[in-house]
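Risk register update: the risk of archive-format incompatibility is retired. Evidence:
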Amino acid sequence: IEFGFWAFLIWGFYFLTCFYFCVIEPRVKFFELPLIKFINNFVIIGTCAFTAYLLLTNLPWYMPELGDGETVVNSFYLIVFAVICASVYSSTHIRYVRILSLATTWAFLGLIVVMWVGAFMGEGSSVGEFVTTIGLLGGYFGNLDKFVLPLNDYHEFYLYWWFAWSIMIGQFTSRFVGGLRTYQVLAAMLVIPSLPIAAWFAVLYYYSINSIDTSGFYNLAMIIVGITFVINSLDSLVRLYTDNLGMTAKKLGTAKYLIGNIVVLSLLTLLFKLDFLQIQWVGAVVIGLFFGCFGYILVKKFKAVKAIECSSSAEQVDFQRIDLAD
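Archived output:
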């Protein structure tokens, strides 16, 4: 629900961080400062664990047939542990990250098509109703302030999480979009993802207002796609912080890499579950990094940033990087 409230606004923020790491960070090198690098990696690892924790706490609602719909039972711990294991394994090679990303995208599109057919091709329905339903999305932009404001505790919780994600997504995506024109990156990060999401919410809305049952196959399909999305999110973050720390699978060996990351993420996930850690703390640290970066630019790198006319000549697209990376 919260994702539907903010949607493209959050992706727009991710675009800004990607732009920063493509164009500004190569001149500023703020995130290469030892202390900042340490804090940044702490944020990445903490956000990975919180993402796993968020999945854990929502599984009772997603899969009530495995429990009472409220309690986190042992089966859910096993599912989250399996997700962590799969994510860490996928992060051992950037090619796996790419394959999983493409598979997740196609699985989501397939889910939309299947549920669309179930909703609009059945008896008593028509494609025209889908057009009418998706046309209602225009009301979102006309009432945007009502979705975003007021900034209550519900919004705050997810905003801290998205703030934590923003730096990581900017860092990760900037590795593969350098050299593209700004409008191309904007389209890839903001416009293109918005289209299937718009169709998805239109389909869900139609199911809701017509009281169409989604239990059984549909619910199972949504769970599988959702968990795959989580794995796809975590593997890129694991890849990012292990690269930053120089603790790659190639350097440590696959066995040590897998065991170390799985143990760390599992323990941190439990710390979030036991309330020893909170995402608000991680998000607050990220906000501190934003202000720290801005201050650093004003004090030490203002002339360098002011002189920027385009991205660095070294930041060119390399479509073979994914295939050649270890």
